[in-house]
Design brief:
The protein has 324 residues and is an alpha+beta fold. It has two domains: 3-68 and 90-160, no CATH class; 179-322, no CATH class. It has helices at 3-14, 30-33, 44-48, 92-108, 126-132, 179-183, 201-204, 213-216, 228-231, 250-254, 258-265, 275-289, 295-299, 307-322, and strands at 17-22, 59-66, 82-83, 115-118, 137-138, 144-145, 153-160, 222-224. The strands form three sheets. The protein has a four-stranded antiparallel β-sheet with strand order 1-2-7-4, sandwiched between helices. Helix 12 (275-289) runs parallel beside helix 14. It is elongated and about 65 Å long. The relative contact order is 0.15. It binds iron/sulfur cluster (2 copies). The site of one iron/sulfur cluster has 14 residues, from helix 6.
């Protein structure tokens, strides 16, 4: 079997999508790569030149792992927060890196080719690698859109010294309908394709510290990530079925000790962010639910040592009392 056939059969068996491309520098995205990106510590040159990460890099392989689980909110009257569906279950970074390593070993073990695998925390932009490898096309929702997985999939990639035949360019699936722009609760997306990450709920839920009041409402009940602009896109992803729940009960969450939080979320995508930020978000979610039953829950944090928790609790209590 040649490399392409091996990739084809591996990805079919694992239920993931793939694309291949060259590891030429990303000159065509020079403007984008010179901008600041949240949570990214690589220099612009490292983001531009794959061979700074792997000497002699020639090829890229991108994989896409769907997370369109369509979890249902429980039908009782408890107070629930929401997680991005991609944050449920085992941390997707771990799952993706495992897949990438398995594939790379299958392709390159015993050959002279070298490789490195990355997901989310690598030097290259996952989205730009996905576009280069024709895993999909760019959507107005600022995600890569694939015919089969819509825009609800994680991207991981292999940089290798092997040369790979590039995957054919996909048909452009985004029709600029603007549904995602309209549905975005924070105005982060523009009809002109612009994206303001600083007001994006996915970013705000991960950012540490006090959330300014003008952004709190847009966060709704999300305590980690936001799926709205991907869910509303009419390029519908194929559903996947993974057990789990994207709706943590807020009272239970606020009562977790540090140890219990680690036990519950330590090996999920949320684990790295730590309990304090997630608790802050849960307090904001209470405020946005506006249900008076949450007042006592939030009041316990009015005297907390962490100022972002005191701030979020005070805001939430004010919101819940407003509903009278
Ligand atoms: S993730 Fe949420 S807040 Fe961010 S652009 Fe999409 S809809 Fe808007
Ligand atoms: S909702 Fe419409 S404009 Fe937005 S990404 Fe999907 S197809 Fe494109």
């Amino acid at each position: 079997m040649n490399l392409r056939d091996k990739i084809e059969s591996f990805t079919r068996e694992k239920g993931v999508i793939y694309g291949c491309g060259s590891a030429e520098p990303f000159y065509e995205y020079a403007d984008t790569l010179s901008r600041t990106v949240p949570f990214v510590n690589y220099r612009a040159e490292e983001r531009m030149y794959p061979d700074l990460t792997l000497a002699g890099a020639k090829g890229l392989i991108a994989l896409g792992l769907s997370y369109n689980n369509s979890y249902e909110r429980p039908q009782d009257d408890k107070l629930y927060a929401a997680l991005s569906e991609g944050a449920v279950g085992e941390d997707y970074h771990t799952v993706m890196i495992r897949l990438l390593n398995e594939l790379a070993e299958l392709l390159f073990k015993g050959t002279e080719y070298k490789y490195r695998c990355f997901c989310d925390t690598g030097p290259l932009s996952d989205a730009l690698v996905a576009l280069r490898c024709s895993l999909g096309c760019a959507g107005l929702n600022h995600a890569v859109i694939n015919e089969r997985f819509g825009s609800m999939f994680f991207i991981g990639y292999i940089i290798t010294t092997a040369e790979l035949e590039p995957t054919n360019k996909p048909q452009n699936r985004c029709n600029n309908c603007g549904i995602c722009v309209k549905a975005c609760p924070s105005g982060a997306l523009g009809y002109d394709g612009s994206f303001n990450y600083e007001v994006c709920v996915a970013y705000l839920t991960q950012k540490k510290g006090i959330i300014p009041d003008e952004f709190k409402q847009a966060m709704g009940t999300y305590i980690y990530g936001c799926d709205i602009c991907r869910k509303v896109c009419p390029i519908t992803p194929e559903p996947v079925y993974t057990s789990g729940c994207a709706y943590p009960e807020i009272a239970e969450l606020l009562n977790l000790s540090n140890r219990e939080f680690q036990g519950r979320y330590g090996n999920t995508a949320i684990g790295w962010r730590g309990k304090r930020t997630i608790v802050r978000n849960a307090l904001i979610a209470l405020g946005n639910l506006g249900d008076r039953r949450g007042i006592a829950l939030a009041e316990r944090f009015l005297t907390d040592n962490a100022e972002e928790l005191r701030d979020a609790a005070a805001w939430a209590v004010k919101q819940m009392k407003k509903e009278d």
